[in-house]
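Quick entry, no commentary yet.
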Amino acid sequence: MKKNRIDFMGFSIDGLTMTEVLETIKESIAQEIKIKHMAFNVSKFICARKDEFLKESIEACELITADGEGIVLGASFLGKYIPERVTGIDLMQEVVKLAVEGQYKIYCLGATEKVVEETVKVLRRDFPYVQISGFHHGYISEQEEDAICEDIKASGAHILFLGMPTPHKESFMKRNFEKTGVLFCMGVGGSFDVISGKTKRAPIFMQKIGMEWLFRLWQEPGRLWKRYFITNSLFALLLLKQKLRGLWREDGRLSG
């Protein structure tokens, strides 16, 4: 499995391109090597600093990619190289193509019943040969998880998409991955909402310049203002502290 793992302020990230990520997933599934994928962004970084179980859940993943432009730019600021961001929804759609080519079965778990049903309809429309072996909404308790895992395993799914928010998808993945019997599990966050049409994705030009967050903020200001302003400000402060720490040697002299 291809890796280029770097340390980013105490967290691991695989500095891979979309092509390299897909090659890794394809090879792993073909060889029946089980892997969990995690899309890593600024919000998740901030949350995991205060939530040890979330951090453990992230670190337990065999494949961790930079989902947000903030992580890519932040790594560059600290002198570390991540070639590009690998957005969760783009990777999900590429994995669906991979599943069609390899005749792998997919199970979708997450969002509301209406949204996940519509997501499956859209996937079947856009990818006529895709095999969706099952789906279920994501509003389940811990006590219901064993039954859901049995359903996923009985469906014969090779790939599991988790359309849940953080930290629920990370917790579910860490607790239940082995029970599901799938070869590849990926947390896709709000991707079901976008695919189903519940929310719109930013125009291509905004995606390319790393301003997709602004479009999302415009759509859901009440829910996202704290995430994008307070969280991003804290992230910038932590980056600056890390940078300054790296500039000074242990003897108190300027390094370099």
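second:
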Amino acid sequence: MVNLSSRRNIFDPDSGAPFKLSRSKLENFLRCPRCFYLDRRMGIAQPSGPPFSLNAAVDHLLKKEFDRYRRLQKPHPLMTEFKIDAVPFSHPSLDEWRNNFTGISFFHQPTNFVVSGAVDDLWVNAAGDIFVVDYKATSKDSEVDLNSEWQKSYKNQMEIYQWLFKQNGFPVSNTGYFVYLNGRRDREALEGRLEFVAKIIPYQGNFDWVEKALFEARKCLESEQLPPLNPGCEYCRYRQSARAVEAV
């Protein structure tokens, strides 16, 4: 087992200790290397947003629901409805893999990163192929899909999970599934309950980019230079605007 430093997880270029890099932090690097550097190298994290309590409740209840069919080793009715020939995957480490504080991890020796991520679910077919499953919840009038530019992060998330399980020796399919719940807005009144329309969206992942991103993230952290301001990053724009006002 790889020993990680007990101190706060800030990158030290002079340390030979493996550095823990979560799936979400790698995604932060993809969004903005400057913010990633400030966070993991300088210890200046982005402000945290409010907790998404409703989404967390949906996630929790979906896991309980799929766990019921996992114990029975039968497909969930949604899987039958969307013609997915699989059942929820059982494994002694599943609870660990789904825990945000542990997840599944892999030591990537070339970068000295311990990469980790917490998956929502796994399904398996009769041939033994394992499918990574991610739960999503929203509420909008149109039907849910994966076509928006901002949903690229959902796809990255799926592919990092696929990469992690592949590196751990599991027969992971390139096909993953998003269980997407859309809160209905067409009812006359709430009446104390929110109803959802559920949809399973298949996604053909390609995690070839992950290893390259790890090398780039390592190079970023090793640099003594702060990456340039990213005009597409709202945090960078905010800091730039604040500095301009404060300098007056």
